[in-house]
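Work Package 4 report. The design task specified in the project plan requires that, given a folded chain encoded as structure tokens, an amino acid be chosen for each position. We show below one input record used in the internal validation round.
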């Protein structure tokens, strides 16, 4: 019996092999990496962190994830996603987050430790009592392993990250080297209050149109 290796299986096999030792990677981790079309990117295009009242988010056309890494141990992360509501399609909940900090290699894995006071997340729910809320965000990330390959379909450098439980994140493509990043130090001072801030409601119609447009592209 003959077996053929699909493109997906090929990527998986390459990831498995390379993830055993980061020295096998075809290039270094330095750079800005982004999923899909690259609409989500680090470097201040999406988030300008300030106080809870002055932090601003600019929404990209598509959902996605972006990571940036320097050679000397700093990272930045942006995530944008939403949850649909089949019962009430108008009640889409959007989540956009930003954080940065330092990273270390742990064997075949990575540990990403944010600057505690700087991370921000905005949650928009047009059907909630509080429709638009920004809070502090501090999420230490453990990556079980990682690999950089050349995607055989696109010929692009591709970063594959497996989370602490082995669950893979979507593949991310190199979009900038050196990376696009905000300054790699604490930007907003020390936070110990854990307060939240309600901001002026953003147009729900605008959000829905943006999400629909992004999914169709």
């Amino acid at each position: 019996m003959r077996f053929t290796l699909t493109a997906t299986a090929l990527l998986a096999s390459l990831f498995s092999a390379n993830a055993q030792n980061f020295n096998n990677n075809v290039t270094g981790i330095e750079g800005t990496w982004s999923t899909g079309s690259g609409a989500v990117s680090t470097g201040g295009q999406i988030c300008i962190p300030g106080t809870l009242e002055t932090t601003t988010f600019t929404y990209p056309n598509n959902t996605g994830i972006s990571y940036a890494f320097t050679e000397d141990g700093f990272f930045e992360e942006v995530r944008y996603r939403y949850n649909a509501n089949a019962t009430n399609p108008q009640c889409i909940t959007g989540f956009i987050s930003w954080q940065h900090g330092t990273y270390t290699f742990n064997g075949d894995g990575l540990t990403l430790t944010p600057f505690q006071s700087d991370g921000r997340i905005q949650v928009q729910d047009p059907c909630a009592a509080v429709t638009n809320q920004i809070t502090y965000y501090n999420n230490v990330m453990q990556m079980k392993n990682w690999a950089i390959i050349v995607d055989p379909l696109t010929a692009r450098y591709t970063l594959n990250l497996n989370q602490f439980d082995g669950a893979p994140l979507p593949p991310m493509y190199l979009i900038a080297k050196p990376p696009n990043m905000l300054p790699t130090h604490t930007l907003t001072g020390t936070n110990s209050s854990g307060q939240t801030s309600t901001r002026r409601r953003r147009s729900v119609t605008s959000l829905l149109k943006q999400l629909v447009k992004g999914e169709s592209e």
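The chain is about 10% helix and 35% strand. Validation will be extended to a larger panel in the next phase.
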